[in-house]
Design goal:
330 residues; 9-stranded mixed sheet; 13 strands; alpha/beta; 4-stranded mixed sheet; 27% strand; 10 helices
């Protein structure tokens, strides 16, 4: 495919409408410097210089989609707290439609303390339990009512309780009935409930843990991928593999895409970028291989940024230019 055709495809992303459902969280990054060790315990003393708050988890998927120009709606859980209000305002300010549920738990927050470009510690605030039946019914009613407004659904599962077995089955059923894509960034807890989806994007560890097949070489990778496809009867699978890139499984074939990052600063949210780009392109009936290559380019850009990050259309186009210059063609 020529560069112009790819650019035209990317320019069409503003026509796509996607619903993200999953575990919404707030990522806080506290930056500082370490000049001494605490006299109270053998730990570094971090002098804070600045901090940054960003949507994380499913909220970062929504933000990635919005940066690509996709019309985006998100469903998730937030608390009736300052962090929840921050997330809600952040989404509204970026014209991301929301259906955010307060079920009594606090907003999930991941706080990372980074000193001298190294993460010192991560502190999590969360209460993870399944969504109540009443709230689950409200979500299903909302999706059923508004499904025709979307080209597909992304399930962003971080195992915090938003995604339930009943919800998964309902989402997959109504998407199949209405010819909509449904893509999943899964966690182990619900892994085998994601049957007959369009595609899944587990990472190496998730795929290995879910199947009990440790990925250590090409043979074990192929065995793991084929096992997942057989068990879930999904149309395709992408296993993301960090510095080794990603591997696509579709129609009985396996293909490796090497990592493209020049320099890795932070892998936070790279999986969110992959599922966002792949889903948005699949909604335009893009072949999986091309969608995966473009997602791989986007992931290479994101890991070169510090903190939870996204990719703009202009950055992705520049990445395409660099890819063609390096590889010659898609």
């Amino acid at each position: 495919m020529t560069k112009n055709k790819i650019f035209n495809l990317l320019d069409k992303l503003h026509e796509v409408k996607l619903l993200v459902i999953g575990d919404v969280m707030l990522d806080i990054f506290i930056y500082g410097k370490v000049n001494r060790i605490s006299p109270e315990a053998p730990v570094p003393v971090v002098n804070i210089t600045h901090e940054k708050k960003m949507p994380g988890g499913a909220a970062n998927v929504a933000l990635n989609l919005k940066e690509l120009g996709v019309n985006t709606t998100i469903i998730g859980i937030i608390g009736g707290d300052e962090e929840g209000r921050f997330l809600e305002n952040y989404m509204h300010n970026r014209n991301i439609k929301t259906f955010l549920i307060n079920d009594g738990r606090p907003t999930t927050v991941k706080t990372r303390i980074i000193a001298n470009s190294q993460q010192v510690v991560r502190v999590d605030k969360e209460i993870a339990h399944k969504l109540s039946e009443k709230k689950e019914t409200q979500v299903i009613e909302y999706i059923t009512k508004h499904l025709q407004d979307f080209d597909g659904i992304i399930i962003s599962d971080y195992a915090k309780g938003m995604i339930t077995k009943k919800l998964i089955k309902k989402l997959v059923d109504i998407c199949k009935q209405n010819n909509k894509i449904v893509t999943v960034d899964p966690k182990i807890e619900n892994f085998y409930h994601y049957k007959e989806v369009t595609t899944l994007t587990p990472n190496n560890k998730e795929a290995s843990s879910a199947t009990g097949i440790v990925i250590k070489d090409e043979k074990s990778l192929e065995k793991c991928g084929k096992h997942i496809l057989k068990k879930l009867n999904s149309k395709s699978l992408i296993i993301t593999r960090g510095e080794k890139g990603m591997t696509i499984f579709e129609n009985g074939h396996m293909e490796h895409l090497p990592a493209l990052a020049k320099e890795v600063f932070d892998v936070t949210g790279a999986g969110d970028t992959v599922i966002s780009v792949v889903s948005a392109l699949l909604a335009l009936n893009t072949p999986l291989r091309l969608a995966a290559i473009l997602a791989n380019i986007a992931a290479g850009i994101v890991v070169g940024k510090i903190g939870t990050a996204t990719v703009t259309i202009d950055e992705l186009k520049k990445g395409v230019d660099e890819y063609i210059a390096q590889k010659g063609a898609f």
